Amino acid sequence: MNPIDQNTDMNQKSTSKLNKIDQYRRQFVGGTVAATAGLALAPGLLLQTVQAKPAEQAVSSKNRWGLLIDTTKCADGCNDCVTACNQEHGLREIHGPATDAQWIRTVKLKNKSTGHTLNMPMMCQHCENPPCVDVCPTGASFKREDGIVLVDKHICIGCRYCMMACPYKARSFIHETLTDQLPVAPRGKGTVEACTLCMHKVDRGDGTTACATACKEKAITFGDLNDKNSLIAKKLATNGGRQLRAELGLNPGVRYQGL
User: Per the confidence metrics, is the pTM higher than 0.85?
Assistant: First the structure.
């Protein structure tokens, strides 16, 4: 084959591959969790087509979804937000061994000088400038227009660069073969996952997350950071909120009070 023809053929194949990747990402961003009904992603995993919301209600940069967590209301030993997240996304199997995935975890902090302790939930911080996206070699880690940071399981190769780049240790790697998954949370052995900010609930207009709903003390507030009239924006304007590792300049969508 002529070298020029060979290069042209290679370029066409490369362009075709990139176009397919872009197509998968557009489908995922637009709210369709699985692109094809019955698509086998990994051993033990079958994805189902889920229509999260009408196509005309596409995500928009007008919104910046986030969480405000008041640690003064987080009781010692309370794990309701973790349990709710696990149930909402099927992270713990009813029958069979539990996976080691953690989309949200509770952390206890102690001031060595005073002995004062506090509890706080930790999850993906949904950064405006996410380092996990920067280091991903395939584009599997990406940020939606509304600020939600996700992993496209179709093109995640399990390299775990994003896990190393995340300063919040918010991502998990799936080692196990999974069964009985929920359509709202497609997962796959050999891929990385993290808190999706209950993307499926956001897309259908629920106006809340599983963790916020489960918190009896109302320590977790979900809302639109860009909407000055939203409850989360009003609370931040009145009492402020702290970013974790603010010095990194990531501008996370999760803020904390009482630290």
Answer: no
